[in-house]
Amino acid sequence: MNEILSTADLYDERGDELASIPLQFQDLGGRSSFSGPVRTVKCFEDNALVKTVLGTPGDGAVLVVDGNGSLRTALMGDMIAESALANGWAGVVINGAIRDRLALAKLPFGIKALGSNPKKSTKTGRGEVDVPVVIDGVHIEPGNMIYCDPDGILVEP
């Protein structure tokens, strides 16, 4: 994020042009404010597509991962996050869990997730990339802009 406007100020300025995700995400990366165009992965307890997508050039994008809110397995850990950072991603929003919390907190990378679990996910590659997702009633499509900071997450259609 350009550090110019907080999500609260952005909402005050633009109001209902923006959708606010009410679900309470935790800030788990070393950068708590980040924004960018959205890419998406829809998966359930399987992080193969997350790893694949974050291993490609991010060009400042934010990967929104709809893991259906599952906290039973982690969808990202330190090695995938380091790859994402090296590939120019601005951050990730994971409707699910991560692992390696202490290592992730040291990375200058935006990470919002519901929580953590040390258990690895499966790696079959099941899921979809760059499809519309819905998180807590908010529709998010590839190409939307997303703004994240400690106050929450705003999506611009």
Describe the model.
With 157 residues, the chain is of the alpha/beta class. The chain is built from four helices and eleven strands. The chain has helices at residues 7-14, 48-54, 78-86, 101-106, and strands at 19-20, 26-27, 34-42, 62-66, 91-98, 110-116, 128-129, 133-135, 138-140, 145-149, 152-156. Strands 1, 2, 3, 4, 5, 6, 7, 10 and 11 form a nine-stranded mixed sheet that branches. α2 links the parallel β3 and β4. The radius of gyration is 14 Å and the shape is globular.
Helix-strand blueprint:
Layout: H1 7-14, E1 19-20, E2 26-27, E3 34-42, H2 48-54, E4 62-66, H3 78-86, E5 91-98, H4 101-106, E6 110-116, E7 128-129, E8 133-135, E9 138-140, E10 145-149, E11 152-156
Parallel strand pairs: 3-4, 4-5, 5-6
Antiparallel strand pairs: 1-11, 2-6, 3-7, 3-10, 8-9, 10-11
Instruction: Output the structural class.
Output: alpha/beta
What's the total count of β strands? 11
User: Count the helices. How many?
Assistant: 4
Roughly what percent helix? Answer: 10-25%
Order of helices and strands: HEEEHEHEHEEEEEE
Largest sheet: 9 strands, mixed
Report, as a whole number of angstroms, the end-to-end distance.
17 Å
Short description:
The chain is of the alpha/beta class and 157 residues long. It has four helices and eleven strands, in the order αβββαβαβαββββββ. The protein is globular and about 40 Å long.
Note the main attributes of this structure.
single chain, 157 residues, alpha/beta, nine-stranded mixed sheet, two-stranded antiparallel sheet, 4 helices
